[in-house]
Amino acid sequence: MPHSTITPRRLNSEALSHLPREVQIPRYDRTNVKHGIVHIGVGGFHRAHLAYYVDCLLSQFDLSEWSICGVGLQPFDASMRDALVPQDYLYTLLERAAEGSTARVIGSITDYIFAPGNSEALISKLAHPNTHIVSLTITESGYYYNENTHELEVEDPNIVADLTTDGPPRTTFGYLTAALGRRFRAGLKPFTVMSCDNLSANGNISRKMLISFARLKDPEMARWLEAEGAFPNSMVDRITPRTVESDMTFLSSEFGIEDAWPVVTEPFSQWVVEDQFSDGRPPFEKVGVQVVPTFHDVERFELIKLRLLNASHSSIAYLAYLAGFEYVHEVIRDARFQTYIRGMMQEEVKPLLPQVPGVDIDDYCNTLLRRFANPALKDEVTRLCLGGSGKFPQFIMPSIAEQIMIGSGSLRRLALSVAAWFRYLNGVDEKGQEYKINDPMAEELRAKAREGGQRPDVLLGVNCLFGDDLRGDKRFVRELTTALESLYHVGAMKTLENYVQVC
């Protein structure tokens, strides 16, 4: 690690040659590359994952067609634009571990389009022949996918507006449909739509939702897209905490880089992607990506990751928040939480998972606990609490539903995780202080949590989140009710202690 006496430099193209030798920088010509990839939703995870892999490709191989044009669709994306543009779209990837930290300047993003007020520029970029892949990290809510019906939320006001008006699109599907319509009429191939979100069957969902939308907006194009389009499924994995001021201070003092929005991540990274592309792709496998032939191959890796890593994060999140924890590594070092999570993974989830050649589930669980315990990441519990309505149907409920089908397996710990979320949705902590719930359905869910109180039936009645198999199962409802009552009566830590002792 460099000495802390370095004079910091504001990150931009000119500063690269003046950075310490320990900092890895892009050596390729960033002025002579084409935008083969347009990425919608440039946040921390994209910059720690896909943009990192593309930077590796550009650095190691003579590629000139695969740089990234970033896109921000929402007004809040102006902050990312304002951070990247003055830095010539460069940013720093700070890998942190207990053993030490490394810094790498990523150069794979070479342009950024802020869609509000620039809708035509974005549609033109998407429709351009150089655009071969449109990748997405738009969060679960950006797909307008109804978990109960498995159909597009056609009554959502944003979808309705994009279907019935000719103004600037509001949604990702509105923009994609407009651009694909131009490509169809110009005789071009459809670009590949590549989801990098933590959704089970993310490619299949992307395909179904976009084609459903396109059938209502542009039926002729929809038939072409259905026949010729590509929507690879993928499994993505890299813990990426929210960047905080102390990260920027550390980067400046230890590596001499002043970066308006660096990305902090762990050394571990994995990406499994289905080899289904309609208009070419870069050789991802050359930089460690597991490119597999079928959705089934992705699905097996994905199931393990979503049901263990993501489910564990969600199971930690709300109990830990209610108990007053700030960082994930502090939570997992608490013997009660570690016993709870290990028991959930081993006894309630592992029996449901497929066997994957080369994957040892016990070793995977142990690795997860080590990753969670990384103190250098300073991963905040509040980050794990974001968007529970998009996470629980993906990460927790499927395991509960399968345990219900089996009829004999334990689901007590899984039920406790749901109960903790329900208790959290009340919006008032154990000291009587209100807090903000960051969730697309926050207003509705908070109202139902307060109406139901210790009774889970009101929240279980939200049809877009819960199916009849869950709310109609007496054993699950009984376990959920018991856990929820305990959380209200004795609090998160005492409830956890009781569960750890009994389980």
TrEMBL record:
Record's keyword annotation contains Oxidoreductase: yes
Span of domain Mannitol dehydrogenase N-terminal: 36-286
GO molecular function ontology, one term from the record: mannitol dehydrogenase activity
Positions of the Mannitol dehydrogenase C-terminal domain: 297-487
InterPro entries for this protein: 6-PGluconate_DH-like_C_sf, 6PGD_dom2, Mannitol_DH, Mannitol_DH/Oxidoreductase, Mannitol_DH_C, Mannitol_DH_N, NAD(P)-bd_dom_sf
Pfam families: Mannitol_dh, Mannitol_dh_C
Presence of the UniProt keyword Glycosyltransferase in the record: no
EC number: 1.1.1.67
Catalytic activity: D-mannitol + NAD(+) = D-fructose + NADH + H(+)
Domain of life: Eukaryota
Keywords carried by this UniProt record: NAD, Oxidoreductase
Enzyme class: oxidoreductase
Recorded family membership: Belongs to the mannitol dehydrogenase family.
PANTHER family referenced in this protein's UniProt entry, alphabetically: MANNITOL DEHYDROGENASE 2-RELATED, MANNITOL DEHYDROGENASE DSF1-RELATED
Function according to Swiss-Prot or TrEMBL: Catalyzes the NAD(H)-dependent interconversion of D-fructose and D-mannitol in the mannitol metabolic pathway.
Annotated protein name in UniProt: Mannitol 2-dehydrogenase
